[in-house]
Design brief:
alpha/beta, six-stranded parallel beta sheet, 9 helices, 38% helix, elongated
């Protein structure tokens, strides 16, 4: 049985993943939150799952590299420096980093990329995401993932096209940009809507998360897929063969 260790085991996602591991035919190697020994956990696990906090990521990556243990990273709100640290780690171990471990969102991103590739820039792209009141980063990692998929479909990068939360006298919309808006309130698990709007018609692609368990199931499936893989940087699409 594949032994899975959890960084951030005391959080909502960490607890959900721990509950899901046995159901997926795997074994819980243990968990570390603000206490515990992350190095010992890396040595005892076949694969790690990190849903802790951005500030802990580089330390966890260094530990995973030292132990030669693959790691799934679901922590969001990462900086460019942290993405660079992931790239460096992926030269030595298998790393799967994603803004969302849901299999449904993974497929949605593929659909968004295909739609963006086939529709011209006269089709405006807007991404709207909603989450619970306790979420600390905005836009969500999933919204960024979807924006990156849309930008890739148009042969460019999200940083070139992204426009966040408009306010005031912004003027007319610039053609080809990708707008992002964030809503926070109540106990919303996670809703994401990608709107393609042109003159006289509109396409909307959506994913509504109703149970945090979907992210736990996807994270465990990703961990089982990643265990034993050669060094490299992987994504959730690889798990589904996309």
């Amino acid at each position: 049985m594949t032994a899975i260790g959890i960084y951030g085991s005391g959080g909502r996602m960490g607890r959900a993943i721990a509950a899901q591991i046995e159901a997926e035919g795997a074994r819980l190697a243990g968990g570390v939150d603000t206490d515990g020994d992350p190095a010992a956990l890396a040595r005892s696990a076949d694969v790690l799952v990190d849903f802790s906090a951005p500030g802990a990521l580089e330390h966890h990556l260094a530990i995973a590299r030292a132990a030669r243990t693959p790691i799934v990273i679901g922590t969001t709100g990462l900086s460019q420096a942290q993405h660079a640290a992931i790239d460096a780690a992926a030269a030595e171990i298998a790393v799967l980093q994603t803004g969302n471990t849901s299999l449904g969102v993974t497929l949605l991103a593929q659909l968004v990329r295909e739609a963006a590739a086939r529709l011209g820039t006269d089709w405006d792209i807007e991404i709207v995401e909603s989450h619970h009141r306790h979420k600390v980063d905005a836009p969500s990692g999933t919204a960024i993932l979807l924006g990156e998929a849309a930008a890739a479909g148009r042969g460019t990068t999200l940083s070139e096209l992204r426009v966040d939360g408009r306010a005031g006298l912004t003027g007319a919309r610039t053609e080809g940009t990708i707008g992002m808006a964030s809503l926070r309130g109540g106990s919303i698990v996670g809703d994401h809507h990608v709107v393609f709007a042109s003159e006289g018609e509109r396409i909307e692609l959506s994913h509504l998360a109703q149970d945090r368990g979907i992210f736990a199931r996807g994270a465990v499936r990703a961990a089982l897929w990643l265990a034993g893989r050669p060094a490299g940087r992987y994504r959730m699409g690889d798990v589904l063969g996309l």
